[in-house]
Amino acid sequence: MHIKDLDLNLLVVFDALLRERSVTRAAQDVGLTQGAMSHALNRLRAFFDDPLFVKTTDGMTPTPRGEQLGTTVSEVIAAIRQNVVAEARFDPLTAQRTFVLCMTDMGELVFLPPLIRRLRKLAPHCTLRSVQVPLEQIESMLSSGEADLALGSIHAAPEGLFQQQLFMHSFVTLVSVRNRKVGKTLTRAQFEAMPQIVVSLTGRASAAYDNAFDAYGIKRNVYLTTPHFLAVPHLIDAHPDLIATVPLELGTVFSKLGTVKVVPPPVPLPPFALRQHWHSRFNTDPANVWLRHLIKETFERYPLVSEQ
């Protein structure tokens, strides 16, 4: 006997007969007509040179040879269902896995609260892990499968990454509530003179920010460059002469702390797109596809932010 001579679909038929002990019910179970099921049983009998199942008062009873094969066939079918078929689809209600997302601390504040709410409802046995990695390592993290998605603004996405826009965000400037020199607006002269905090994952001032300010001929007085958004309101509270320009969503969260207030920048800044990025290797991976759809649905109605 050679496995190439065996139609592996016949093992599904064998497993159904073993469970149902009826040609009619087994046919219904695998979606065959009764005639097709009988034909499949005859092919099994010919291959194994044994009746395999005989009709008795208890239904189609396996022969000793059928009983012997039954244990192995059941184990094979169970393994295929659990390890092959299950991997070909993703059932969020039963899946147990951890989704890993590359994002900044700002991304955690913006993305995680609504995402956690939906994930708990739709995929109750799945969990999340957020990681912050240098931009130059994101492609390798996604390529290797160490991370599922990268969320945020990656202005020059590496080759091999797909991307999808989620929503646009604009910018506001944070000022200490104890800074009496600044009211509801910030003049250009004040903006240029006041020492500023700039958030940059690379440790350098953002080229995108620079280009926007350069277009207006504005020169910023950058005092501190940091990769951490969460440090900004605390630093401004400790040093009320400092200011920082951040995405509106983040400014809204920070203003609730009561230590900083939000004012519009002295010049209009172009909005930036927040996107999700994934590697081409996982473009058709069922779990990755499901997660991307969930994130897109969660944030596609995210209100378009504007200066207030």
Automatic annotation (TrEMBL):
Pfam families: HTH_1, LysR_substrate. Keywords: DNA-binding, Transcription, Transcription regulation. The keyword DNA-binding applies. InterPro entries: LysR-type_TF, LysR_HTH_N, LysR_subst-bd, WH-like_DNA-bd_sf, WH_DNA-bd_sf. Signal peptide: none annotated. Residues 6-63 form the HTH lysR-type domain. CDD domains: PBP2_DntR_NahR_LinR_like (cd08459). GO terms for molecular function: DNA binding; DNA-binding transcription factor activity. Belongs to the LysR transcriptional regulatory family. This is LysR family transcriptional regulator. It comes from Paraburkholderia panacisoli.
